[in-house]
Amino acid sequence: MEKVEAQEMCTFICSRGSLDGAYPALVLAINARRLGMEATIFYTFMGINVIRKNGTKRCKFYPPGAMGAIPGMAGVATRMMRKQIKEAEIPALEDLLEMAQLEGVKFVACRMTLDMMGLKVDDFIEGVSIQTAEDYLKHARNCKVNMFT
Length: 149
What we know:
- There is one protein chain.
- It is built from 5 helices and 5 strands, in the order βαβααβαβαβ.
- α1 packs parallel to α3.
- α4 links the parallel β3 and β4.
- The protein has a 5-stranded parallel beta sheet with strand order 4-3-2-1-5.
- It is globular, with a radius of gyration of 16 Å.
- The chain has a single domain, classed as DsrEFH-like (Hypothetical Protein Ychn, Chain: A, 3-Layer(aba) Sandwich), CATH 3.40.1260.
- By secondary structure, it is α/β, with parallel strands linked by helices.
- The relative contact order is 0.23.
């Protein structure tokens, strides 16, 4: 009888609810699925806002350093970044999130972050599961790739 190999697995942690925090985990997870791997994104701290209903619309780009401290700069930088994304023909964040779900990427929200922020399961897009950090680690220790994006 032929031995069946287990599917390779990977996880990505998204802890920032900004454009530059949300895109990497989604792009990597989609590509992992296309390589035949099981892919999970664990959303924690401010990253959890990405998977809230209408959360992608609230994601901004915050310039690093002193530029980011200038009032109104995040709005200007966000418009510029979204324009560059569109011009590069990269899917908008909301489209990428939907694409990831269709590709089979699993979205997991951190239980501690839910409790800390007073969130409920109904606050999230469809298909999000809830896990404790311990449960995430039990899964992650068996993965070939684990990345903090």
